[in-house]
Amino acid sequence: MSTATRIPPPQTAGVHWYGTEIDVAIDTFSATAVRASSLDAITTEVVRLRCARYHDCRLCQSLRSQDALADGLDEILAAKVDHYENSDLDESLKVALRLTDAVIVNPSSVDATMAAQLHEHFSQEQIAEMLHDIVKWSFQKVLVALRLEAPVRDGLSVLSFDEHGDPSIGESIAVG
């Protein structure tokens, strides 16, 4: 994407939280999460959006995964993330969102029933990837608390990652 803007890592954006060693570890963890590919793009994106909305990350809420858009994500589907239990989302997406909520709010609430639901719809590798994603997309809590996570532009934009897991924000998305 020629119109893409690379998102700088926090330390080059003037937000250096912990020191080089931890920043590198967080960046490596994040890049590993976005390079994983056992989950389909829609499941990955609804998990990312649920994290964004739960944490109220303005930047993450303003982005839509390029891969998920290519696989059919639209704003009608994205809106269902907010009230997923009462929606017509596929049960596998509801299970993924239940796990997301549980990990964000109370990880010890993941019980045998939820584990069975997860294993009904996802492989062990996919569950591990989902957990990795939830943790990765929850890191922005620090930025949200300080309100340093403003969107790049008004409206929605395309989010993509290169082969190293580095993010970039592309063109605006027309909604409607």
What are the main properties of this structure?
alpha+beta; AhpD-like; 9 helices
What are the SSEs and their pairings?
Layout: E1 5-6, H1 20-35, H2 41-55, H3 58-61, E2 63-65, H4 66-70, H5 75-79, H6 91-105, H7 112-121, H8 124-136, H9 141-145, E3 156-161, E4 167-173
Parallel strand pairs: 2-3
Antiparallel strand pairs: 1-4, 3-4
Helix pairs in contact: 1-8, 2-6, 6-7, 6-8
Describe this structure in words.
This protein has one domain: AhpD-like. Strands 1-4-3-2 form a four-stranded mixed β-sheet. The longest helix is centred in the first third of the chain and has 16 residues. The chain is globular, with a radius of gyration of 16 Å. It is 50% helix and 10% strand. By secondary structure, the chain is an alpha+beta fold.
| CATH level-3 fold name | AhpD-like
Following the backbone from N to C, one meets helices and strands in this order, namely EHHHEHHHHHHEE
Going across the biggest sheet, name each strand in turn.
1-4-3-2
CATH superfamily: AhpD-like
| Uncertain regions spanning at least 5 consecutive residues | 8-15
Count of helical regions: 9
How much strand? 5-15%
Radius of gyration based on Cα positions: 16 Å
What's the end-to-end separation, in Å?
23 Å
Average pLDDT number: 88
Overall shape: globular
List the domain count as a whole number.
1
- What is the CATH architecture annotation? Up-down Bundle
Helix content: 40-55%
